[in-house]
Design a protein that fits this description.
single chain; alpha+beta; four-stranded antiparallel β-sheet; 9 helices; 12 strands
Amino acid sequence: MTTVEVFAPAKINLTLHVTGQTPNGYHMLDSLVAFADIGDRIYLSTKGPAVLDVTGPEAAPDLSSLDNIMWYTALQFWKPDIPLSMALEKHLPMASGIGGGSADAAATYRGILLLRNVAEGGADAIVPQPEDARKLLQIGADVPMCVMSETARVRGIGEWIDPIADFPKLPLVLVNPRTQVSTQSVFTQLANKENPEMSPWPTRLDDPKELIAWLGQQRNDLQAPAIADCPVIAEVLDAVTTDETCRFARMSGSGATCFGLYDDLGAAQTAAERLTVEHPDWWVKSGSLNGGDLVEPQLIRSTT
């Protein structure tokens, strides 16, 4: 029996420009994506039976059903003649604009690669296979970027991923008002679907001050239609920016989760504590944008 643990970090769209739409309805994006040290944990084991056990503060009964994106991913990449049991420790709220389901699917894929390597007597290291790219994109447009879990510029429908080196570790707070937002509804309400792409990168992308100033000149084109669909998002942004230590705030993805960026982790933690007291019904977490440091699958044990 072999068991692996994989971290599934929250995906944060620091920018999200909608630049067009394909004939079959997919939206073309230009987005700066980063990953937080806040996320779910996935456990995969070659010990039967084939089950998905869901625990954690954001667990829900329907998450263990057979239409879960983790099951779908396993069916695409795991050998059917070998048992596979899965466990999901759920920390990210559902339908929240930070890629929770896609992150879980991507973590499942990374874990399966390691399990396959161990079963075949190979090295512990994993290398995503180029021939898997199309399947991953079909599982979800965000899944390929979540497989990499590296800060990147993502374009097209999610298939063009250009990693960015030397990105600063930005302290942040994530806030979700416990309201699920329909991505389809938000895109439907977006009147103009052919908008300019991101402007040229700042001279010093690794400089937090210069980066945050540049972010202020960019957009999330889905923020306004999401607020129209879910007005509490505006309340979240107001609550985050009320704190003078917040350097920048925006909605991630199609919402409703918003993020605030800070100079240091202490300021982010203090802001999160204040927001938790003022809004006890909201989901509030502090951390930093460095999830890529944590996503390598860990081999917990391997026995014969």
